[in-house]
């Protein structure tokens, strides 16, 4: 917490340096007992300087004393409700004595849900800052996808295949796949079978089964929900046999 907590007897210059060091654009101002007395974001400092305050002035000229804090007993549902407020990007966490013990950002909380990690007030939330958010979109030659769940045992995605585009003919050794068509029509190669795809169609692809997803040119995007189950989901478990884009 040293990177995010600053004493209320610090100067504005101290706050500027702390924000520069932690790279998160916010600080939690605490008193001598380590209890939260206010929050500071970089915008608060800019506004104080524009009002004529010096960098040598007290940080108390910048702190926002109207803030939301939770205690260590707060549950998942309560935090979800708080983060629905678009103005709240982080929440200080206090112990039963009111002393600051942690802070969680909205991004970190979303990643916990994405990766199926159980919330605890004692987690090292900063360890999740480099992880992928659920709304990250990955461009591919055939279209794009975004992940909605990532865990050691499952991965879920929404895939969009552009008209006249197709994924490679491929198989996987370490995962099975479950497809549900959301929108559009197309074809699916499943082993030796060619299936028609349409909204509501479900397709199960076992491990080791050759398969291919095709948008056969009806002018609309083909959108699927894909759930992968297994013990590994890396790109190197894609074994390609045919590929329109030369990726074999």
Please report the total strand number as a whole number. 17
| CATH topology call of the largest domain | CBS-domain
Determine the N-to-C terminus distance.
48 Å
Shape label: elongated
Q: Main sheet?
A: 6 strands, antiparallel
Trace the largest sheet across and list its strands. Answer: 7-8-9-16-11-14
- Overall CATH architecture of the largest domain: Roll
Beta fraction: 35-45%
- What is the residue-mean pLDDT, rounded to a whole number? 93
* Rg calc: 25 Å
- Counting helices, strands and paired strands, the structural category is alpha+beta
Which CATH first-tier class of the largest domain would you pick? Alpha Beta
How much helix is in the residues?
Answer: 10-25%
Order of helices and strands, N to C?
A: EHEEHEHEEHEEEEEEEEEEE
CATH superfamily placement of the largest domain: CBS-domain
Number of domains: 2
Enumerate the spans where pLDDT stays under 50 for 5 or more consecutive residues.
none
* Quaternary organisation: single chain
Structure description:
This protein has four helices and 17 strands. With 248 residues, it is of the alpha+beta class. The strands form five sheets. The chain has a six-stranded antiparallel β-sheet, with no helix packed on it. A three-stranded mixed β-sheet has the order 1-2-3. The protein is elongated. It folds into two domains: 5-128, CBS-domain (Roll), CATH 3.10.580; 137-242, Sandwich (Jelly Rolls), CATH 2.60.120.10.
């Amino acid at each position: 917490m040293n990177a995010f907590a600053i004493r209320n007897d610090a100067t504005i210059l101290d706050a500027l340096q702390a924000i520069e060091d932690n790279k998160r654009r916010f600080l939690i101002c605490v008193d001598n007992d380590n209890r939260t007395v206010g929050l500071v974001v970089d915008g608060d400092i800019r506004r104080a300087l524009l009002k004529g305050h010096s960098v040598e002035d007290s940080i108390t000229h910048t702190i926002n004393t109207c803030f939301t804090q939770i205690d260590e007993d707060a549950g998942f549902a309560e935090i979800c409700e708080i983060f629905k407020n678009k103005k709240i990007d982080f929440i200080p966490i206090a112990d039963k004595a009111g002393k600051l013990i942690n802070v969680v950002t909205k991004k970190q909380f979303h990643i916990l849900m994405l990766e199926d990690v159980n919330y605890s007030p004692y987690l090292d939330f900063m360890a999740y800052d480099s992880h992928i958010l659920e709304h990250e979109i990955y461009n591919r030659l055939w279209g794009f996808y975004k992940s909605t769940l990532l865990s050691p045992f499952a991965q879920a995605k929404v895939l969009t295949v552009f008209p006249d585009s197709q994924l490679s003919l491929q198989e996987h050794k370490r995962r099975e796949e479950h497809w549900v068509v959301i929108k559009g029509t197309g074809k699916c190669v499943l082993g030796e079978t060619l299936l028609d795809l349409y909204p509501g169609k479900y397709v199960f692809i076992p491990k080791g089964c050759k398969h291919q997803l095709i948008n056969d040119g009806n002018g609309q995007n083909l959108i699927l929900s894909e759930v992968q189950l297994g013990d590994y989901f890396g790109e190197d478990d894609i074994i390609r046999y045919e590929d329109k884009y030369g990726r074999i």
